[in-house]
From TrEMBL:
SMART domains referenced in this protein's UniProt entry, alphabetically: HDc
Lineage of producing organism: Bacteria, Bacillati, Bacillota, Erysipelotrichia, Erysipelotrichales
Reaction catalyzed: nicotinate beta-D-ribonucleotide + ATP + H(+) = deamido-NAD(+) + diphosphate; P(1),P(4)-bis(5'-adenosyl) tetraphosphate + H2O = 2 ADP + 2 H(+)
UniProt organism field: Faecalibaculum rodentium
PANTHER family to which the protein is assigned, alphabetical: NICOTINATE-NUCLEOTIDE ADENYLYLTRANSFERASE-RELATED (PTHR39321), PHOSPHOPANTETHEINE ADENYLYLTRANSFERASE (PTHR39321:SF3)
Metabolic or biological pathway: Cofactor biosynthesis; NAD(+) biosynthesis; deamido-NAD(+) from nicotinate D-ribonucleotide: step 1/1
Keyword Lipoprotein: no
UniProt gene name: nadD
Protein name per UniProt: Probable nicotinate-nucleotide adenylyltransferase
Length: 368
């Protein structure tokens, strides 16, 4: 069958063979790095329109047509389990993660057909995969071995010589690539965001894709130092690392984009020098855009430029930011003091920061 038109919802369903009592299982292979709402919408479309009993998500150990190093399989599996926990007809199938080497679908389908003779399988793909289906290992044999169904993930009409049955799905405009750079995070549930941050997945790229390289290196360095100060003071190292990583996430945001944030959430700070605005906006963006809903982190980022909070986490990031060894001056003694006595180190940092600001005030240069 040639596919040259995307069917409307009314013409898509296949009439199941009434004599066939096998469980109808849809297989959905992918990197799931990470899983997102587009994957779930595909699975729901397949359950509805293919009258399937179940959808099995199959994370690849190594995706043959992707050169990028994937996030470790145990994380991708754990994230799928979180995303599917309220989906009784969906589960994770781990055979590809358990098999060494590249994850070729033909090997997976052969294995599953042997392992589950009571199942009638359909393999589901997006139209991007339909376009490159000829590159899949033993594509012709595979197309004979198992039925294929596809969704038009971007609404685009795709032609193929393979017998692939299109089902309808309202486009869900998201990809894992976008999620990995911190865009369209509303397409993953909060619990998954919490998993990213607890396991330090993707979040460095959230920052990297928003600031110049030197600022990114500074953010990593501040994350490490904030964590170190926090651990030395008996605080939560993970919370501190995230605070340091995100403290400058809005540093490269143009002033005219920051202004509406300030107007909306802290208009009283509009009188401050714009060089300090990124701290106020950064606190909001970390919470509302990146979904790090932690008032202590927001507070610490809010105050990191001027050191105006005496919460210990805020002290850690303020000091780490000022003492970052990448700034190029000798900060060893003060770093050592912060490790031994955070409060004393904080007071000294604040005093020297004040001196510096005073000395440069005539140029209206800030030291953040
Ligand atoms: N937003 C989406 N809408 C429909 N299908 C999608 C979407 N995102 C991914 N898919 C499909 O899901 C399968 C697994 O994709 P995967 O490699 O995990 O993700 P991505 O393409 O987002 O990096 C592929 O067949 C892909 O075409």
């Amino acid at each position: 069958m040639h596919v040259d038109a995307i069917p409307s919802r009314s013409v898509v369903s296949r009439v199941p063979d009434v004599a066939d009592t096998r469980r109808r299982v849809v297989l959905l292979g992918g990197s799931f790095d990470p899983v997102h709402a587009g994957h779930l919408a595909m699975a729901h479309a397949a359950l509805d329109q293919l009258e399937a009993d179940e959808v099995w998500f199959i994370p690849a150990r190594q995706a043959p047509l992707k050169s990028r190093q994937l996030t470790p399989g145990e994380h991708r599996k754990a994230m799928l389990e979180i995303a599917l926990k309220n989906e009784p007809q969906m589960r994770v199938e781990t055979c590809e993660l358990e098999r060494e080497g590249e994850s070729f679908t033909i090997d997976t389908v052969r294995y599953l057909k042997k392992q589950y003779p009571d199942c009638d399988f359909t393999f589901l793909v997006g139209n991007d995969q339909v376009e490159q289906f000829h590159k899949w290992k033993e594509a012709d044999a595979l197309a004979r071995l198992v039925k294929f169904a596809a969704v038009a993930r971007d609404g685009r009409n795709v032609k193929t010589k393979y017998p692939i049955h299109f089902i309808h799905m309202d486009p869900v405009p998201v990809s894992s690539t976008e999620i990995r750079t911190g865009n369209r995070l509303n397409y993953v549930p909060q619990e998954l965001l919490d998993y990213f941050y607890a396991n330090r997945l993707y979040c460095k790229d959230f920052v990297k894709s928003r600031v110049p390289d030197r600022r990114y290196m500074h953010s990593l360095s501040v994350a490490r130092l904030t964590e170190e100060f926090a651990l030395a003071a008996g605080l939560d190292g993970q919370q501190a690392w995230l605070t340091g990583l995100f403290h400058d996430v809005c540093k490269a945001m143009p002033v005219d984009r920051m202004r509406p944030w300030l107007e909306a959430v802290c208009p009283e700070e509009l009188t401050m020098h714009p060089a300090a605005w990124h701290s106020y906006v950064g606190a909001q963006v970390t919470d509302r855009v990146f979904g790090i809903h932690d008032p202590r982190i927001s507070n610490a980022i809010f105050h990191h430029v001027k050191g105006t909070s005496d919460d210990p986490l805020a002290m850690c990031v303020f000091c780490a930011d000022k003492l970052d060894p990448l700034r190029g001056y000798d900060s060893y003694d003060l770093i050592d003091l912060c490790r031994r006595d955070l409060k004393a180190g904080f007071e000294k940092c604040r005093a020297s920061n004040r001196e510096y600001v005073d000395a440069h005030r005539k140029d209206a240069v800030w030291t953040n």
